[in-house]
User: What shape does this take?
Amino acid sequence: MRAISCLLILACPAFGQAGFLMSGSVPGDGFTVEYRTRIEPASDVHDVHLEGGTAGWRRYLYHPRERKYFGYDVLVQPQDGEYRLSLLPLSANPEELGLPRGAWTQVPLPGSAAPQTVRAGETVAVDLLVNPFTSQRVVDYLRIRRSEPREVYSVEGAARDFTVEDAPLRLIEPRLQVNGETLQATANMTGGVSGAAVRFYVPGKGRLVLTLAPNQALGFRRAGEIRGSTLTFTAGPDVYSIECNGRIAPGEAAYHLYVHHDPAYQPKAPAPPGVFAVDAANRAALLVRR
Assistant: This one.
């Protein structure tokens, strides 16, 4: 992680309870700049009285009661597969940022940071604000992500309410450990899988179907948790851990994981020892009954 020091002192109430404050992204030509704003260290005191967002390539925050605002312009220049990232003084006025009408005072940054070259996926930490009484900071974490080609889908039929059974699991480049031993994915596992239910076949352990929905009628039981890019569960005497490239389930919370285990299951083409196979479907029943 790279850090850019842009410390400010602004009189405001003690910083708030959850460390996460806000997040967003700005699309570019072939890439996206994502920001995630946190309070560090987090504490259970008062709510943060800061709001903000982006206006084009301008990142801004403001204090509604004190009528003060601050931020920076983002300049990204692709260079030979990398990106030259520059953070410049905020160039927009309150009206251009869409702030409520009235008098505002801009709190300037103490100086612009030197441009730096970063790779896609690297994180840059930007210290925005420090509370002189608690030494807590408001920090922006910036990450540049290469944009994938846009995919457009159409869906037929009548609309219905969203349910937990519709929530997809995304296992990108999964790394599976069973009782601490790492297994290799089959050769046809190109990148990852996505679906409301995910099925693993592990030699000697049988079939394991994972989902966010309880599905008691199909024999699922609550057996583990999903936390960000990692899921863990138990099946029989065994402990399973899967680490992926990116978030597995949608949303910011940790979730219960439900598992259907068929230890006697044998596929038509079993994987060799030390290798696991994985696939997915949009309904758990499709993976349990076939």
About this structure: Residues 284-288 form the longest helix (5 residues). Confidence is low (pLDDT under 50) at residues 1-17.
